[in-house]
């Protein structure tokens, strides 16, 4: 069974090593993870999913800098062995719930244009592509900007 909890600083080395596997093209560094922990739990919400052995199998984070602005989904990642079990869907539901409580106006995220699995996930959850960012993940690695309105 999968459980969910808030991420804590001592999870960081595990997340860094998972990141290198899950985002081989442009993994977050330890510094970027540390930054993503800044402002937890006030402006950032950072979750991990764990298996029966308490091993981390996925993580996700969102940033809402102030009420009335868009929530920025910072990362969503699930190990391949645990894919297609609804973990990312659960994460997104939690991130959206938290962002609504923080009075965000909408959800926003970037996703690699070739990341068809993640794009399918977000489309299923009601996100729409609103723009393309050239070389967002590095030279030649473009991203779609996707958005989901609240309330409608
Ligand atoms: C993309 C990712 C987050 C999906 O996580 P997940 O826990 O497997 O997603 P879910 O089980 O909640 O999937 C829900 C739905 O999204 C769609 N989906 C998810 N992964 C998919 C894939 N690889 N191919 C096609 N559709 C996919 C499906 O519609 C799926 O429903 P279904 O399994 O009933 O068909 C995961 O594969 C991952 O971490 N990939 C590497 C990192 C990454 O790309 N993160 C996103 C960065 S923006």
Automatic annotation (TrEMBL):
InterPro entries attached to this UniProt entry: AcTrfase_RimI/Ard1 (IPR006464), Acyl_CoA_acyltransferase (IPR016181), GNAT_dom (IPR000182)
GO-annotated cellular components: cytoplasm
Assigned keywords, A-Z: Cytoplasm
Stretches assigned to the N-acetyltransferase domain: 2-151
Cytoplasm as UniProt keyword: yes
EC number: 2.3.1.266
Highest taxon of the lineage: Bacteria
Entry keyword annotation includes Cytoplasm: yes
Catalytic activity: N-terminal L-alanyl-[ribosomal protein bS18] + acetyl-CoA = N-terminal N(alpha)-acetyl-L-alanyl-[ribosomal protein bS18] + CoA + H(+)
CDD domains, per database record: NAT_SF
GO molecular function terms listed in the Swiss-Prot or TrEMBL record: protein-N-terminal-alanine acetyltransferase activity
Enzyme class: transferase
Localization terms from the record: Cytoplasm
Family: Belongs to the acetyltransferase family. RimI subfamily.
Function: Acetylates the N-terminal alanine of ribosomal protein bS18.
Protein name (database record): [Ribosomal protein bS18]-alanine N-acetyltransferase
Record organism: Candidatus Planktophila lacus
């Amino acid at each position: 069974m999968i459980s969910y909890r808030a991420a804590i600083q001592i999870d960081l080395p595990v997340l860094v090593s998972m990141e290198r596997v899950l985002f081989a093209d442009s993994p977050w560094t330890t510094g970027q993870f540390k930054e993503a922990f800044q402002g937890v739990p006030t402006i950032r919400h950072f979750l991990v999913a764990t298996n029966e052995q308490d091993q981390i199998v996925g993580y996700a984070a969102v940033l809402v800098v102030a009420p009335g602005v868009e929530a920025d989904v910072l990362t969503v990642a699930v190990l391949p062995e645990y894919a297609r079990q609804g973990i990312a869907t659960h994460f997104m539901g939690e991130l959206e719930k938290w962002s609504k409580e923080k009075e965000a106006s909408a959800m926003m995220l970037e996703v690699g244009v070739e990341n068809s699995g993640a794009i399918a996930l977000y489309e299923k959850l009601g996100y729409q592509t609103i723009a393309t960012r050239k070389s967002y993940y590095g030279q030649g690695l473009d991203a779609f900007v996707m958005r989901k309105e609240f309330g409608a």
